[in-house]
Design a protein that fits this description.
Radius of gyration: 19 Å
Mean pLDDT: 89
Helix content: 25-40%
Order of helices and strands: EHEEHEHHEHEHEHHHEHHHHHH
Structural class: alpha/beta
Strand order of the largest sheet: 5-6-4-7-8
Largest sheet: 5 strands, parallel
Oligomer: single chain
Strand content: 5-15%
Length: 345
């Protein structure tokens, strides 16, 4: 991985209880072996992840020229990546006309996302590009490619390289958990790597029990929130991007030492507008459809991009239960979330 001295992983990888594993295997076709817990507050990976893979993530090479975007899943990650890449690359729209991953970005935690046993069904003819067994592309990318590297991560800071914030610039995005939950529900029905078989009410139960791949969400966000004053961390809220995208573009540009004109900011905001973003083939992971890794009749990778969509999915009873759960999780912190907007871009 790197010539730097490797740091031992400070956490044990622990399978969930048998009863929970069996339930997960029943409700998620993509996780026949269930999940494992990987840090002090139970961050989850597929049960087939290896200690070597998690230690590789923990020791991901760092360079001061590298840029990271870190979020829990379905918190505007792809949207933010496009904004960050274009700002850091001086608005190179031509350069952005290349596939997102792995051409422009690597995805550090990809090896922990899917069940290796389940993924065998998607193997294709062997090829030099895909390796001896063929199959889906390696979206993790090459961690040792020359800097500057653009890295996407859903890992919490406690599972990331401990030197990350001291070496690299990191943009972190938090989102209100209700909308993140709804978006993750649709994502896990769309992507066959997960293949959730239940309804939104059942999924919400899994979300609140933190029994999902790359959950818990709130602990992830609290951990980052407590680091928000670090000079190498730019902390954003998805809802602020929806409310005033231009202001957030300026905030990120300042973080990277860039100064853009009003016209340049307007052009980038238009490029990132959800109506245009949904039509952009370079960010919509269309390659997943060609590989048979999605259910095309269930939508697209970039979905609605709305704040408050949870109201179209939660019953009053679900909402009351979720509110109590959030209140308990956020006790003792000053982190709060905007759940609705009067006006959004």
């Amino acid at each position: 991985m790197s010539s730097a001295k490797r740091i031992p992983l400070p956490f044990k990888i622990i399978p969930l209880e048998d009863e929970v594993q069996q339930k997960i295997a029943k409700d998620f076709a993509g996780y026949p072996n269930g999940l494992v817990s990987c840090n002090h507050w139970g961050f989850k990976f597929s049960a087939t992840v290896t200690e070597q893979e998690v230690e590789d993530m923990y020791n991901h090479p760092l360079d001061p020229r590298d840029v990271w975007v870190v979020t829990p899943p379905k918190c505007g990650t792809t949207w933010t990546q496009e904004m960050v890449w274009l700002i850091a690359n001086d608005l190179d729209y031509e350069g952005a006309k290349t596939p997102f991953i792995p051409d422009r970005w690597s995805f550090v935690d990809f090896p922990g996302l899917s069940d290796k046993e389940y993924m065998k069904r998607f193997t294709s003819n062997p090829s030099e590009k895909d390796g001896a067994t063929g199959g889906p592309p390696n979206l993790a990318g090459d961690p040792n490619r020359p800097p500057p590297r653009f890295v996407k991560s859903h890992l919490p800071f406690s599972l990331s390289n401990p030197r990350l914030l001291d070496v690299c610039k990191v943009v972190y995005v938090a989102r209100n958990p209700k909308d993140a939950c709804v978006s993750y529900y649709h994502h896990m029905r769309l992507i066959r790597v997960h293949d959730f078989l239940g309804d939104i009410e059942l999924f919400t139960e899994y979300f609140m029990k933190d029994e999902l791949g790359e959950a818990p969400f709130i602990e992830h966000m609290i951990e980052a929130w407590n680091l928000r004053h670090h000079p190498n961390l730019c902390f954003l809220f998805y809802e602020d991007m929806k409310k005033d995208l231009r202001a957030q573009i300026r905030k990120v540009a300042k973080f990277f030492g860039k100064d853009f004109s009003e016209e340049q900011v307007d052009k980038l905001a238009e490029h990132l507008h959800i109506d245009n973003f949904k039509k952009n083939p370079f960010v919509n992971f269309e390659s997943l459809n060609k590989l048979g890794l999605t259910y095309p009749d269930r939508g697209s990778f970039v979905r609605k991009g709305k704040t408050g969509d949870w109201k179209n999915h939660f019953t009053p009873e679900m909402n009351e239960k979720f509110d109590k759960w959030m209140e308990e999780k956020l006790k003792g912190t000053d982190l709060t979330f905007v759940q609705e907007l009067e006006k959004q871009d």
